Amino acid sequence: xxxxxxxxxxxxxxxxxxxxxxxxxxxxxxxxxxxxxxxxxxxxxxxxxxxxxxxxxxxxxxxxxxxxxxxxxxxxxxxxxxxxxxxxxxxxxxxxxxxxxxxxxxxx
Length: 108
Known about the structure:
Elements: H1 19-24, H2 42-45, E1 52-57, H3 65-74, E2 78-83, H4 90-93, H5 95-107
Parallel strand pairs: 1-2
């Protein structure tokens, strides 16, 4: 995970204070016996009746803007927020923008 970590961020070399402590605490394991699974819930998204926040980092390589746009279009009560200059871990990379987006969604 430590070797892959730079890919998860929009700018890995310009991280906020406290990032090094967070990075040192990461502990991920892989299950060598895990079987690939098809997980396609696109048809089910139209049935979601709960207001939903779709929060995406501009440079997210895992759940990129294409998928976020598709998800937001499919969920009737969704709000799409893109955090600029951010990757997959907005809560770490841009914590203030991430928190503001969540706060604004919750109080609206």
